[in-house]
Each structure stands twice: as C-alpha cells, then as structure tokens.
Prior knowledge:
It is built from 6 helices and no strands.
Amino acid sequence: MNNEVPHFPPGEVTGGPRLLLRMEGLTLFITMTGLYALWGGSWWIYVILFLAPDISFVGYLDSPRTGAALYNAAHSYMAPILLMAVGMALSAPLIMSLAMIWLAHRDRPRAGLWPEICRRIRLHPSGEDRQGSNGLGRGLIRRSEGTRA
C-alpha cells in the first residue's frame, strides 16, 4: 500500500476545488465544441484555430515576462466573450464560430489536459520549470535521465 501524499507545488489548487475547476473547464470545453458542431462549422478550421492561441508562447523567446503576458492575454475569458457578444449583436456566424473555438481552447488547461503534460516534463506554463530555471525550454529535465534536454 502506498501511503505517499501527492506533491503539489505551493499555490496549486488541490482537493475538491481542483475537481470543481476541472469539471467547469471540461463542461465549457464540451459545451463550446458541441455548439460548434451544431453550428455546422468546419472541423479543419476548428482544429487549426483551436491551437492558434498557443502561438502566444512565442513571447517567451523575448523574455519570460513578455511570454507570460502574451500567454495570459490569449487565455483570458475577456476577449472570446467580447467576441461572442459582437458576433451575436451582428448576427455574424464567423465571429461566433471563432469565439466558440477560442472558449473551447481557453478551458482546456482548466480541464486538466495541459497541466498534466507540463507536470510530466516539469515545465510550468509561466515559463519556469519545476527546478526554478527561467525561459521556455531552458532547464527542461527529462525525468528518466536527469539530464538537460
């Protein structure tokens, strides 16, 4: 029997609130993807645009501060919700589709689909790995080898 308590970095949400946040994220992801399907949008466009907000990672090439600012701006609720409101006000299907895809992408991390990947390679979305090194890719440590990648 394994009696070890899972290790979570300081400030990381655990327990019931973590489960609630993941369920909220998964609910929004499924709802927006389902609405997009009912809307009759192209799945090729969905796949391409679903990954588009992650282009914000390019900001880490400049600095961790720039990267975090761009990443956080691209993964905020404000822009896609405003875009959805504009799409509704103008009865613009393309704008509505973009907002649905962006919102589906936005809650992928909260659904637990992104943090687990980051945890496995010890890289935090802020650009700092679990060992304290700054910068995207710098300090990336493979668990099995214990050497820099």
